[in-house]
Amino acid sequence: MKNLIPILVLLLFLVSCISKSPTLTEQSKSETDPLPNWSEGSSKSVILDFITKTTTFGNAGFLPESDRIAVFDNDGTLWSEQPMYFQLAYAIDFIKKESTNHPEWKKTEPFKSLLEDDIKHVMEGGEKALVEIIMASHAGMTSEDFQKSVSDWLDSATHPKTGKPYNQMIYQPMVELLEYLRANGYKTFIVSGGGIDFMRVWAEKAYAIPPYQVIGSSIKSKYEIVDGEPVIIKLPELNFFDDKGGKPIGIHQHIGKRPVLAVGNSDGDYEMLQYVTAGEGPRLGMLIHHTDSIREYAYDRNSHIGKLSKGLDDAAQNQWLIVDMKSDWKNVFNIK
Amino acid sequence: MKNLIPILVLLLFLVSCISKSPTLTEQSKSETDPLPNWSEGSSKSVILDFITKTTTFGNAGFLPESDRIAVFDNDGTLWSEQPMYFQLAYAIDFIKKESTNHPEWKKTEPFKSLLEDDIKHVMEGGEKALVEIIMASHAGMTSEDFQKSVSDWLDSATHPKTGKPYNQMIYQPMVELLEYLRANGYKTFIVSGGGIDFMRVWAEKAYAIPPYQVIGSSIKSKYEIVDGEPVIIKLPELNFFDDKGGKPIGIHQHIGKRPVLAVGNSDGDYEMLQYVTAGEGPRLGMLIHHTDSIREYAYDRNSHIGKLSKGLDDAAQNQWLIVDMKSDWKNVFNIK
Which residues on A lie below 8 Å from B70 (Cβ)? Predict the structure, then answer.
């Protein structure tokens, strides 16, 4: 009996240790801010409340994991899009490099203006010129060759304002939001007007979004055996334009289910937010408003790139959250 | 000092308990067969060896989780496809039900033969007739209406041979393989000639494959606001035919990365297996050979549905595994 006393004391001590020790999850919840680069305020509260509401079992807004689908535009929403879409910068560099093999480009628009560095004139050609340039930077290549070409470009090209590689110009607050959503059982998808294969080269490293969760514009391709090797060859023909009303179609084709959260930054994202937020149950639509001319760029209603006008007009009525980049984000980039 | 002895004894006992107790994973590995409906033999060994090799850190064939992508045909690979593709059975029932609203169908093929129950004549119309029938069973509906229509059909229609709902006629050994791959960090995708939206209605429940991991043939659609509600409306125009050389294209469009494991059952899967197994590193191509006329169906070279001829000819040279349904599978279905 006497010998049992220290054993009982030890057992009580062990039980008390176990019951007092907080789990790792509890510790993280109380001590760590999941969105450290979002300033305290109503935007951050709306986001955190939505995630808590949809992931707390028993809450009226609770969603099973299979319904936790969030979609994000890319250009101007996850990374910068000024002074021109980064994919256009890639395509221009590619076309200049390849121009010796294409003497006809010197005589035909939009290539002529491009080779003469008259980017303003190129942009006046609108969507049609943009698509032609993007297609010329793909066509005839195998999918592997294209990946390598983009990857090599990212290793060497730098942004004219920051002098940093383009794939460092991603928004740190958005990376945090993507991570926090995934930690709460959400699947995160990109739904961008940009080229699907262009984004897939670097999106996994930048955002931890795998290639099969990237949706974008695409050109047609064909399957062929070349020198005994099966390859995918890119063709100079538009397959799908993932912008405006194309975004809900792209979502339907690739995801097959209406997401519950959508984030964009321009009127090209209007229909995506409209489609997502019109569904039943809890919904959240967000627009990133570029208000920070010092740390990034300030533009909206009159911008050629990323024009945001109708979205601003209708945000209140649609109950969409407008994120003010200048006041809502503590840091914009996490540039090394 | 005397009091410390029982404490030390207790501590030794606790340490010995902890070190001896097998973890749950070890227990499962030693006591549970992950593929209970696969007979012991070379097919099962090849599959288990491939999964072990690609998921054992330090092994020459080890793959990071981001590369563990497996693709599966559906009709004849994950569920039955006889005596006709199940989606055709759905479309026939739909067209018969809708025929009063379409008097023109009585005069035009392939609808005329279909309404006269002359399915043999319908099938003689080949791919073109099939596509017309499938499209007629979608067009003009919203994506939600179509989902409901398929779901209602599955609740009432039964297979002519077994008398069971079509979505119970899934192959239990394949369900086990899908589960075991996922337990080992693989992502599982369907890549089928069947309709993408038809499969998405029931694939998550049947195979635990979410809608965004289903790839299939599709018709075009448009985004519209109807009575104030944003909807996706299906159009009577083919968007993508996910068969033969279309399968690698569908994989490239949706996954954006070459998978390492592909399973099919017909020559329509030839290019998918060719594309997947030609990549570098460890690869596995498998063809399900329908050899069981008693428990399922026996067919290959001369079948109109699921013809398998070139695949059988080239399997050895391509190092593809031929799974013999009769001898390799202990049970075919898990019918309730």
Answer: none
Chain A residues touching chain B at CB-CB below 8 Å: 3-7, 10, 66, 69, 143, 187, 189, 196-197, 200, 204, 210-214, 218, 221-223, 229-230, 232, 239, 245-246, 248-249, 252-257, 271, 274-275, 278
- The ipTM value here is 0.90
Residues of chain A positioned with their CB less than 8 A from the CB of B239? 253
Q: Place domain A34-82+169-230+239-328 in its CATH homologous superfamily.
A: HAD superfamily/HAD-like (3.40.50.1000)
Q: What is the pTM of this model?
A: 0.90
List the structure tokens of A33.
Answer: 């801010």
3-state secondary structure of A70: strand
**Best residue in A202, A253, A271, A314 to probe B by mutation, most B CBs within 10 Å?**
A253
CATH of the domain spanning B31-82+166-328: 3.40.50.1000
A9-24 per-position pLDDT tens digit: 555 555 444 444 444 4
Contact B188, B70 (CB under 8 A): yes
Domain range annotation of chain A:
34-82+169-230+239-328
Average pLDDT over residues A213-229: 96
